[in-house]
Amino acid sequence: MLLPLAEARERVLGSLEPLSTERLPLADARGRVLGAEVVAPGDVPSFPNSAMDGYALRAEDTIGAPVVLEVLGTVLAGQAPNVPVTPGGAVRIMTGAPLPAGADAVCMVELTEPAGPDRVRIARAVPPGEHVRWPGDDLRAGQVVLRAGEVLNPASLGVLASIGVREVEVVRRPLVGVWSTGDELSEDPGPLAVGRIRDSNRPALLARLAADDFATLDLGILRDDEAVVARALREAAERCDALVTSGGVSVGDRDVVRLVLDEVSGGEMAWMQVAIKPAKPFGFGRLGSRRIPLFGLPGNPVSSLVSYELFVRPALRRLAGHARVDRPVLAGVTEEPLPRRPDGKVHFLRVTCRIRADGTLGVRSAGGQASHQLHGMAAAQGLAVVPDGTGLPAGAPVSVLLVEADDLPGPGLTESLGVPDLASAGSGGGPRR
C-alpha cells in the first residue's frame, strides 16, 4: 500500500529532536543555530558619535544660515575630544569620532566651505541631532539581541562581535556517515567488467551534504558480507549522528544491507512505499545505544537525491536545530508541457528554472526523467511538483522545490534596477576593465 508523502515525512520528522549544544568561536559559527538567547551587556553605540565627516556644532548656531563659525579643533575616530563646542564654534569631526561636549548636531562636510583661517561657512541650518549616533541607537543594555533557534548569518555574527561576544552556544552540527554496498560497485576509473557499475550515489550524497553544511564521514563501499556490514553499522552508529545508505529498500529486496538493518535495529526499521515518483521506496529506523536515525534511500541515483531532498535534508536540519527544514517552494509557470501518466503518485520532475523579465519563474523539463538519468538532475535547478494525472500544459501554474537557487538564470542586477551596465558606466567607450 502506498503511503502519502506527508505521512511518511511525519514518521521521520516527528521522531527527531535537536542535538545537544556546543560553544564555538564566532569565526566557526556561520549558519549554525543559536542554542541560547544573547542579551546586550551595554548600549551600542556606547557613546554619541558622528555619522559623517563634517563639523560638530550647536544646531541653534546655524539658524539663519549660511553662517560662519570658528573652528575650535579636530577630533578623529578613536580619540577623546579635547575641546568643547562653545557658542559660535565648531569642531572638525570624522565619522565614528565621539561628539564633543556642547555639540548636538553634525553638519556634513559637503555643506561647508572654508571661510578664512580657523573659520568654516555652514551652508544651511542643521536641525538638532542631525548625523549623530546616540548611545543605544542600535542596541540598549539588557535588550535581547538574538533568540535561541535563530540561524547565525554574517550580519548576526557582526552584531555579536559588536557587544563583545567571542564564543557562542550553538546546536551541534550532525555528523552524517554515508556508505554504499554491493559487490557490483566499482571505483576503478578503468574499463568496467560486465555486470559492474560505478558508485555515483555516495559521491553525490557526500557532496550534497557538504553543500548543505553538514559534517560528513565517508564510510566507503561495503561488500555483500553480513558480518562485515553488521560490524560497520554498529561502529558507525557510535561515531555518527545519522547514517545514510542507498539501495536494497524496494519491495522484495532481500539484499545483505536490508537483512542486517532489520537485525541491528531490533526490527525497528520501517520499509515504506511512498506515493511519489521517483523515490517511492524508503527505509527509516534508529540504531545503536544513541538511537541515531538511519535513512535507507533507493538505489537509482536520481531517486536517491530526490529522497534526500524530501526526507534526509529536512531531518538533518531538525537535528541541527533549524525551525525551517525545507528548501523554498516557489510558484512557477510551465514554458512547455510537463506530461506524465496517472499512477496514484505525486511526481517530482527535474526542471530548469529561470527568472523572467516580469519576475515570474519560468519552468522547463531538464531532460530525461527516468530515475537512472542523473544527467537531467545535474542540469536542474528545481523539482516541479506535478500531482497525479496526465501532467501540465504549457502556461500552467506549478510549484517548484528549489534545489539550486543560486544557479537561477535571470536578469542581472543592473537590468533589474533599470540602470546602465555598471561595468561600462563612465568608460567613455574605452576598454572595459
TrEMBL record:
EC no. given is: 2.10.1.1
Q: Which residues form the MoaB/Mog domain?
A: 177-318
One Pfam family named in its UniProt record: MoeA_N
Keyword Metal-binding, does the record have it? Answer: yes
PANTHER family noted in UniProt: GEPHYRIN (PTHR10192:SF5), MOLYBDOPTERIN BIOSYNTHESIS PROTEIN (PTHR10192)
Biological role stated in the UniProt entry: Catalyzes the insertion of molybdate into adenylated molybdopterin with the concomitant release of AMP.
Write the protein's name. Molybdopterin molybdenumtransferase
Organism whose genome encodes this protein? Aciditerrimonas ferrireducens
